[in-house]
Amino acid sequence: CQVGSFIRLIVLVFFYSQNNSIKTSKYNAFNFLPMNLFEQFQRLANAYFLFLLFLQLIPQISSLAWYTTVVPLMVVLSITAVKDAIDDVVKWLPGPLADILLLSSSEPYSLTYIETAELDGETNLKVKQAISVTSEMEDNLKLLSAFDGEVRCESPNNRLDRFTGILIYKGKNYVLDHDRLILRGCIIRNTDWCYGLVIFTGPDTKLMQNSGKSTFKRTHIDHLMNVLVLWIFLFLGSMCFVLAVGHCIWESKKGYYFQDFLPWKEYVSSSAVSAVLIFWSYFIILNTVVPISLYVSVEIIRLGNSFYINWDRRMFYELKNTPARACTTTLNEELGQVKYVFSDKTGTLTQNTMIFNKCSINGKFYGVVYDKNGQRVEKTEKVDFSYNRLADPKFSFYDKTLVEAVKRGDRWVHLFFLSLSLCHTVIPEEKVEGELTYQAQSPDEGALVTAARNFGFVFRSRTSETIMVVEMGETRIYQLLAILDFNSVRKRMSVIVRTPEDRVMLFCKGADTILCQLLHPSCRSLRDVTMEHLDDFASDGLRTLMVAYRELDNAFFQDWSRKHSEAYLSLENREDKISMVCEEIEKDLMLLGATAIDDKLQDGVPETIITLNKAKIKIWVLTGDKQETAVNVAYACNIFEDEMDGMFIVEGKDDETVRQELRSAREKMKPESLLESDPVNSYLTTNPRMPFKIPEEMPNGNYGLIINGYSLAHALEGNLELELLRTACMCKGVICCRVTPLQKAQVVELVKRYKKAVTLAIGDGANDVSMIKAAHIGVGINGQEGMQAMLNSDYAFSQFRYLQRLLLVHGRWSYNRMCKFLSYFFYKNFAFTLVHFWYAFYSGFSAQTVYDTWFITFYNLLYTSLPVLGLSLFDQDVNETWSLRFPELYEPGQHNLYFNKKEFVKCLMHGIYSSLVLFFIPMGTVYNSVRSDGKEISDYQSFSMIVQTSLLCVVTVQIALETTYWTMISHIFTWGSLGFYFCILFFLYSDGLCLMFPNIFQFLGVARNTLNLPQMWLSIVLSVVLCMLPVIGYQFLKPLFWPVSVDKIIDRIHHCMRHPLPHPSRAKRKHASSQRSAYAFSHKQGFGALITSGKTMRAKIKRKRQL
């Protein structure tokens, strides 16, 4: 477990002999090479090139040298392997971490205080206690080392809230439960040392059992490319078959009688055998239809776009000096296709801190600052608390009138803060004089006690019978007579104390809906004013409590105390009797006022969620926290809104109840979805076991869904999972509370399994690792709950608000660029390769190439690589400002509109058309043509150069039309590559090079002679015009006749650029009435019984032992 201070632990590994280490990486030194190669060859193109390599080793069919394939294949595999290794190294997390059985601790009765935020998202303090037989060993190392107990317990499992076992020690059996176990991921607080016995280690710990397995994440475009490569294989095979048949016919009718001039090889016995060999020869020649450089280019593009994320200054968090980080480079374009975001709450949406924001005391509102003109001031100087030497320096408040009231000695203000300093179960710690640390069961209590401390009422220490408070510099001791603690029914807490003046006082705080019923009739007018203030607090999204007091008659209290003791000791209906006794004394209360705590959201969270909702991204909150707290945060974040048409709460405790609750919700949202004629129901009836994707179902309004972990366990089983999914996906927002880490992953997997959508999970703690791994994209927040989430994530940053830039800017750009790249890349290679197909009909199907060998080598490597990389790294349809201002631009990526099977077919048809133009226009131009001197120019080499130059001009103009954002680099890459081609042309076809290496460079003087021909330039101009006319026409007509929403938005952006709009105002946080008194409704049973029992006393009698 992690520790907040130095904790000595003695651990004895007895349950397993395995390694006590945990790693979150996927590879190790032994499995890296085979596992990585296996993953890479899952790409069909890589497997295809491996097969092609084997073909090229056969001399009878090889028309190209073997090294033309093996070298680029090795480069591709090596680059990808190095990148994967680097990605994996940053996820390495070693550590001897374990679940331990608590044996003893420094605290009285071997209590140990822990935080479990990393496990369940809760920040409140919890208590663990060792069994008495082991606690007696304290920190005596001799006794501990001689400990020979035997533990028999359950097998490793993922249940964070359950543990069963037996300790056999000195011939006796002791029952062990969850309260004795400290899990990996807990943070120990307020404890100097503790000793424990290791139960589960390494991957058997409950936290790791919930973490899920590391999987190889591949984008939807990767999967699509595999399908398309398979299509291309079939297309390639079909072309090779057609050409082989043509070769067989040609050889039978002409080649057979032409053997005197072109004899058959000795291994060719017939035209059929020759056709079989030619099939494979063309298979090799036409392999560029799927060039291996495609995958190298994809990796470079992804790497470049990852650097943009790392370099984004607007995603740099100055307070922690942490930049955004792309932990993987393979998922960038997936960021532009996200439909569902699954978010943790604590530390992800919230800052994990509570701040005392406003209060109402005796009918007066405090916490808002006004100027001389009565206008509200947002920013002003902080209140100076220097008069109080025990004040917390981190506490901030801005309304000076409250401090003035304290200094003035206002009776009601003093009584209000005295109540806050006494009515709680906080445990103080003061290791250094004057430096107080409060360990509270909830952050709300800590915030209230800290506020009282700063305003001069300092809770200093406590015992089981007394509370010490420093009031305006004077130390006063209050006798603690009773604590009436919070529970889920009472929704309030009271303390009864005897003041130094011997007055018996009851102080109470709780939900206003409860306390209003307990007030004295004389408080009616004050109650009305305070309720108005509470309405203001709630509208600002603050968590409220009402505060009251009552002075008790001593005789009445003594009589009540006797009844309370009898109720506490009763064996039957104890809770009900205690509640009835408490109601006798908690009445006729005098109202003091109300508090308002800000459940501090991270900066920009509400605005971010509004923006994501406009982008049609659905937000689901998966948290281990309480329902009320999660719902209030959902309202504060704008996941839920007051204007919603309905809110569904699923809290059934059995399958049938959960089913009815889900179906009734669906009936209200879309009644026809329950009919047998519904398409989804019809499909399920006819194909109950067939996997399928559920289409989007539109509800008749905006709705929200809340479901707890117990009900979710039922909903995730059997046929109910589809009921849950269909209901949840119709809702605008979904809150799953009290869920385990494994349930988080199961919800994500459910959406992945049945919805054709990209999922993203974001969290900051170890309890979020499972869903981060399960989602298509995992994002880790660098928060206060450790590094596990970041180390297991694909992307990491420090603030939730950066998510909108990650998706709407980097994600959208990456998706758009990748789609443009793929469309262009397939097009240019179809146009390049299919010219061979047409040429075969004029070359006797002899597997002769159209182009010069060096042009084939450099086409993808040099001539066309930089322009497409420039497009894929720098192109923007709109800048980042418009991307964020019009989130609707994100929608095409969610539906994968820019590159899909339909777009691929368009690329193929465009490539076929261009290849026809590029072959037949030069053919017609040079056919029966002569030079000015009468010599023919229709030779193979001149024709080859005309075709390849026309091709390069066409694809260059094509990429220029595709580019929407021109930079100097874009111009250099695009036009510079074309110029480089003409420069290298003279070098490769120079006299000197051809004379030195005549077998390698065979186009002697072709460049010099052909570039002078008017026929060549006529061919280039005609080819470019004929190839570009359909493209320009389509781009012009498409917005007119087949407009999509993005076209209309782009038009709006162009209009706004000409007529600027005012900048959008900051979104105001909206909240529902349930936000009020959220603390009282969500607070669990406190430490009241523990405090009054005396077990928290710091003084401890040391027992002497003789060893």
Automatic annotation (TrEMBL):
Keyword Cell wall biogenesis/degradation recorded: no
Transmembrane segments: 64-82, 227-252, 272-296, 821-841, 853-874, 907-925, 945-966, 978-1004, 1016-1037
Catalytic reactions on record: ATP + H2O + phospholipidSide 1 = ADP + phosphate + phospholipidSide 2
Keywords, comma-separated and alphabetical: ATP-binding, Magnesium, Membrane, Metal-binding, Nucleotide-binding, Translocase, Transmembrane, Transmembrane helix
A Gene Ontology BP annotation from the UniProt entry: Golgi organization
UniProt: ATP binding residues: D344, K345, T346, E445, F486, K509, R543, T623, G624, D625, R738, K744, N767, D768
CDD domains: P-type_ATPase_APLT_Dnf-like
Occurrences of domain P-type ATPase N-terminal (ranges): 19-70
PANTHER family xref list: PHOSPHOLIPID-TRANSPORTING ATPASE FETA, PROBABLE PHOSPHOLIPID-TRANSPORTING ATPASE
Family note: Belongs to the cation transport ATPase (P-type) (TC 3.A.3) family. Type IV subfamily.
Protein name: Phospholipid-transporting ATPase
Gene name per UniProt: LOC116755287
